[in-house]
Design brief:
Layout: H1 2-9, H2 23-26, E1 31-32, H3 67-70, H4 78-85, H5 89-110, E2 113-115, E3 118-120, H6 130-145, E4 148-153, E5 159-161, E6 170-178, E7 189-197, E8 204-205, E9 211-217, E10 221-227, E11 233-238, E12 244-250, E13 258-262, H7 271-282, E14 286-287, H8 293-303, E15 307-310, E16 320-321, H9 322-335, E17 339-341, E18 351-352, E19 358-359, E20 361-364, H10 366-377
This protein binds 2,6-di-O-phosphono-beta-D-fructofuranose.
Residues 178-182, 262-263, 291-293, 296, 320, 325 line the site of 2,6-di-O-phosphono-beta-D-fructofuranose (FDP).
Length: 392
């Protein structure tokens, strides 16, 4: 396994588009047989130019509450970071393999041809809509990791057997390309995934995740991840040479007037949500909303402040999926020092009863989540240390 891991780190397992059909995905069953093995070949799609940030110019990680994480430095490669952060070799391998898939997806998004209603991969030997291609690449990466038991995606919401072990292995839920409706407008889009131990993706909670991550395909490509055993949410930048470099830790989400209001149509028949939006406007919050959940939530982690809401109403039902989107992003936000809520509880405390379960959600700083719960339901489970109106 060590040899394979080294191979991952060098980028030699980059799965590339192939003309082979994904028959397992074409007719999904409740639990499919293992994917057939596929040839994963190296790729030279990345240029040769080097743009490595010298370690000396980068600050050392501020996170102090774990002996492991204090050894992790800004400037580390993804593999160095993971090796310092966890002794679980299976998890390291899985996160490395997903990193390989993410950089391939970044390239496919960047070079897609957009027209009509779809953005299609136009580079290489396979013509496929980019969200379906992303879906395929992620399943391939998980199978190749050898540590994934089951996987399922928003595109294929049934458990697929990836062939890995139950004991010491993981099950992974992912949204291959969240915000696929804004790929053509060249807005930032992203992949979301959550990693659970063993073979269960239902009857578990978001708090049971051992890791979660987003791949963010914008002007820059980043891999933002959190691991259960270490504090903080960690951002890796994809360098020109194809390596992921650790560039930021977030361990605190503070107060600040920035809002990102999803499902705004619900304000027409949810008066509490309408009042909450009025509050943000009256208090002169800055609106920062793209309509893509990945960049809209990522900005809270990067700017270390703000609130994202996606609230339901009788006529505008909850649409965000607990398993594929809400729980993994909740894990990233809470590991970053923020809070999440469905109005009454942390989204990490919600039991995932079925793969397609939907929920309303808010992510943000503590005071923002208190305000969200109080304005929607009259009280908050979080004890306010100071009056809620006191946001900076
Ligand atoms: P999209 O439909 O474009 O895939 O997850 C679905 C999602 O995007 C989120 O990325 C986004 O936050 C949300 O839908 C936007 O919904 P509203 O238009 O209702 O705000």
């Amino acid at each position: 396994m060590e040899t394979s891991l080294t191979c991952c780190a060098r980028g030699a397992i980059l799965p590339t588009a192939s003309s082979q059909q994904y028959s397992t995905l074409a007719s999904p069953r409740s639990v499919s047989p293992s994917f057939s093995s596929k040839s994963l070949r190296g790729s030279s799609i990345y240029g040769d130019s080097l743009r490595i940030v010298p370690r000396s110019s980068l600050k050392v990680s501020k996170a102090k509450s774990s002996a492991l994480v204090t050894k992790c430095e800004i400037g580390d490669s993804l593999e160095e970071f993971l090796t310092k952060s966890t002794s679980d070799k299976g998890l390291i391998r899985l996160m490395m393999c997903m990193g390989e898939a993410l950089r391939t997806i970044a390239f496919k998004v960047r070079t897609a041809s957009c027209g009509g209603t779809a953005c299609v991969n136009s580079f290489g030997d396979e013509q496929l809509a980019v969200d379906l291609l992303a879906n395929k690449l992620l399943f391939e990466a998980l199978q190749y990791s050898h540590f994934c038991k089951y996987a399922c995606s928003e595109e294929v919401p049934e458990l697929q057997d990836m062939g890995g072990p139950v004991e010491g292995g993981f099950s992974v839920a992912f949204d291959p390309l969240d915000g696929s409706s804004i790929v053509d407008t060249n807005f930032t889009v992203g992949t979301i995934f959550g990693v659970w131990p063993g073979d269960k993706l239902t009857g578990v909670t978001g708090g049971d995740q051992v890791a979660a991550a987003m791949g963010i395909f914008g002007p820059r490509t980043t891999y933002v991840l959190a691991l259960k055993d270490i504090p903080g949410t960690h951002e890796f930048l994809l360098l020109d040479e194809g390596k992921w470099q650790h560039v930021k830790d977030t361990t605190t989400i503070g107060e600040g007037k920035m809002f990102s209001p999803g499902n705004l149509r619900a304000t027409s028949d949810n008066t509490e949500y309408a009042k909450l939006i009025d509050y943000y406007v009256r208090e002169k919050y800055t609106l920062r909303y793209t309509g893509g959940m990945v960049p809209d939530v990522n900005q809270i982690i990067v700017k270390e402040k703000g609130i994202f809401t996606n609230v339901a109403s009788p006529s505008a039902k909850a649409k965000l999926r607990l398993l594929f989107e809400v729980a993994p992003l909740g894990f990233l936000i809470e590991k970053a020092g923020g809070y999440s809520s469905d109005g009454k509880q942390s989204v990490l405390d919600k039991v995932i009863n079925n793969l397609d379960e939907r929920t309303q959600v808010a992510y943000g700083s503590k005071n923002e989540i208190i305000r969200f719960e109080e304005m929607l339901y009259g009280s908050s489970r979080l004890k306010a240390a100071q009056p809620v109106g006191a946001a900076a």
